[in-house]
Design brief:
One of its GO terms (biological process) is glycerol-3-phosphate metabolic process. Helices cover 38% and strands 21% of the residues. The chain is an alpha+beta fold. Helix 4 packs across helix 12 and helix 16 crosses helix 19. The radius of gyration is 24 Å and the shape is globular.
Length: 627
């Protein structure tokens, strides 16, 4: 242990004498990272007062209109964080871009994350003790991107203090030293400085933290800062920003097959099916970018049936608990539990999210957590809390699939990369996979660079996404909610059909400002002018007006799209989402002109979806102690 401390201290000294600067990419100049004219022009285009996301029908027409003689520059397959990031990056370089997503934007891994934007404390530890300069560069890069994600979507992302409890004095010294190094590596991308708190201060900051446990006593805690996000709303913001920048983005559109040149066999387009209407059409592109996450092997096999698998799927399960499990402004992270895993509890959208697991899994559209995984999380957090941890408190539980990737070009295929991989495995098909949410922007930049090289494309400018504010973020201020509360009222219809006014309460105003940024005024105007100011579920700030707004402006095409990804009700409280469903479907039916058959089908689909979220109501209880 003493050797480890000396190694860490030595590393700090090395960084203090300038190693930090050597981690920078010398090919990237300060001018490339500043508000260049190209960035300013794009920002005005997507943030102007008259900017309106094109309707879905217009987007589909743009894809249908791409022909062999007038193809898209780029067609992206996959509407997760990386895919939408690629579409935004390419569109803002002046390229002609299309994107198709089989389900909805963020319907897969991107909506089922840990909700953290982080540099990777554990990777830093491995870098130091394994003397791995490559890992160190990954951490530096992730910390830089962490800061940019928060700055580019300030309404959807924020810094979060995370407490690491210490039960031995050695742990105090070890974690304090390691997290100071984390601060140092961040450099000017630092969010806030880490610091040590005594045992008494720690329980004051985190009241449910146990001061004494089995053969151990709390000695104090080290608090450091990482970022937190509303992942699916950030993903939807990426899709809408890409659309405003000129990309033709289409959710609920499935790639059936690739079109190939008869002579060269290069991919020149794709056969697409609109899953909402059943309509099939061909669209043509100079390059296809495969950003299908865990499903990228399936896309690769469409091009080459002999393509070797490169995805090693890993399951990560999270549970949501009531807000009293954690204080509003402080997370709890245990880097190493008794069985060597990481466990955390984080405040998120008024509730507490806890996790996670890391186990091999099979790839499926709707992964489900099992009771053993939920019991593991409950067991792990109970070791650190003074309150009883109960299975009946689980409001929602979900599983996400991490697309850990092996580079098919590597000689040693046993090595799974934690970094992202970009390669052209088949002429005309560029695949980007691996990585993590934090680095989606740079993943997209690398993928577009590879696509430009592959298709000999001619962008009008370099990448401008480094300092590009997403839709709703430009000009947003944390005090914006107060303006909403003062300016608007919620007009709602009573059970007897009478329209009655109600104040725009602080909780609702804060939610709307955080979810929609500067565009929250448009949502509140609908609530006020169209009498859609009623809450959808008791205890949650989601309004009827949001359903209408998302249907008109955020490509919300199904009930699941709304309860899971435009709002987060399915993730926060599965049962509350179920109760809100009929009303959500009623509003969507009015917006999209659904008949009764479609409404019935939407209800059935949504109930099946919610059945994969294991709340206490649909739990399969074992003989666990958390009943």
């Amino acid at each position: 242990m003493a050797t480890r401390l000396r190694a860490t201290a030595t590393a700090i000294a090395v960084f203090s004498y300038g190693a930090h600067a050597s981690l920078r990419d010398p090919s990237v100049s300060a001018n490339d990272r500043s508000g260049a004219p190209a960035t300013d022009a794009v920002q005005r285009k997507i943030s102007g007062p008259c900017a309106v996301v094109p309707p879905r029908a217009v987007q589909e027409s743009a894809l249908v209109g791409a022909s062999p003689v007038n193809p898209l520059d780029l067609l992206v397959v996959g509407g997760g964080a990386t895919g939408c990031g690629v579409a935004l990056d390419a569109a803002t370089r002046g390229l002609r871009v299309g994107l198709v997503e089989r389900e909805d934007f963020s319907s897969g891994t991107s909506s089922r994350s840990t909700k953290l934007i982080h540099g990777g404390v554990r990777y830093l530890e491995k870098a130091i003790f394994n003397l791995d300069y490559g890992q160190l560069k990954l951490v530096f890069h992730a910390l830089e991107e962490r800061k940019q994600v928060i700055e580019n979507a300030p309404h959807l992302c924020h810094s979060l203090p995370c407490m690491t409890p210490c039960f031995k004095w050695f742990e105090v010294a070890y974690y304090w030293t390691g997290l100071k190094l984390y601060d140092l590596v961040a450099g000017h991308h630092l969010l806030h400085l880490s610091r040590y708190y005594s045992a008494q201060e720690s329980v004051e900051l985190f009241p449910t933290l146990a001061r004494k446990g089995k053969d151990r006593t709390l000695k104090g805690a080290v608090v450091y800062y990482d970022g937190q996000m509303d992942d699916s709303r950030l993903n939807v913001a990426l899709a809408c920003t890409a659309a405003l920048a000129g990309a033709a983005v289409l959710n609920h559109a499935e790639v059936l097959s690739f079109l190939k040149d008869d002579v060269s066999k290069q991919i020149i387009g794709a056969r697409i099916r609109d899953t909402l209407t059943g309509k099939e059409f061909d669209t043509y592109a100079k390059v296809i970018v495969n950003a299908a996450g865990p499903f990228c092997d399936s896309v690769r096999k469409m091009a080459d049936k002999d393509a070797k698998p490169m995805i090693c799927p890993s399951s990560g399960v999270h549970i949501v608990l009531p807000d009293y499990y954690s204080p509003q402004g402080m997370g709890l992270i245990v880097p190493k539990t008794k069985d060597g895993r990481v466990i955390f509890m984080l405040p998120w959208l008024g509730r507490t999210v806890a996790g996670t697991t890391d186990s091999n899994t099979t790839i499926t559209m709707l992964p489900e957590p099992n009771e053993d995984e939920i019991e593991f999380i409950l067991d792990a957090i109970s070791d650190y809390l003074k309150i009883k941890v109960r299975r009946v408190d689980v409001l929602s539980a979900w599983s996400g699939i991490r697309p850990l990737a092996m580079d098919p070009r590597a000689k040693n295929t046993e090595s799974i990369s934690r970094d992202h991989i970009v390669f052209e495995g088949y002429p005309g098909l560029v695949t980007v996979t691996g990585g993590k949410w934090t680095t989606f922007r740079s993943m997209a930049e690398d993928a577009v660079d590879a696509a430009i090289k592959s298709g000999k494309l001619s962008p009008t400018n370099k990448c401008v996404t480094y300092n590009l504010r997403l839709i709703g973020g430009d000009g947003w201020d944390p005090a914006h909610f107060a303006v909403l509360a003062q300016r608007y009222v919620r007009m709602k219809k009573s059970n007897w059909g009478k329209v009655v006014p109600e104040a725009m309460d602080t909780a609702t105003a804060k939610h709307l400002s955080r979810a929609y940024g500067t565009l929250a005024d448009r949502v509140t105007a609908i609530a006020q002018n169209e009498s859609l100011g009623r809450r959808l579920a008791h205890g949650y700030p989601y309004l009827e007006a949001e359903v209408a707004y998302c249907a008109r402006n955020e490509y919300c095409e199904s009930a699941v799209d709304f309860i899971a990804r435009r709002s987060r009700l399915a993730f926060l409280d599965t049962d509350a989402a179920g109760r809100a469903l009929p009303h959500v479907i009623q509003i969507l039916a009015s917006e999209h002109k659904w008949d009764r058959s479609r409404q019935k089908q939407e209800l059935q689909n949504a109930k099946e979806f919610l059945g994969t979220f294991k709340s206490s109501q649909n739990a399969e209880f074992h003989d666990g102690k958390h009943k």
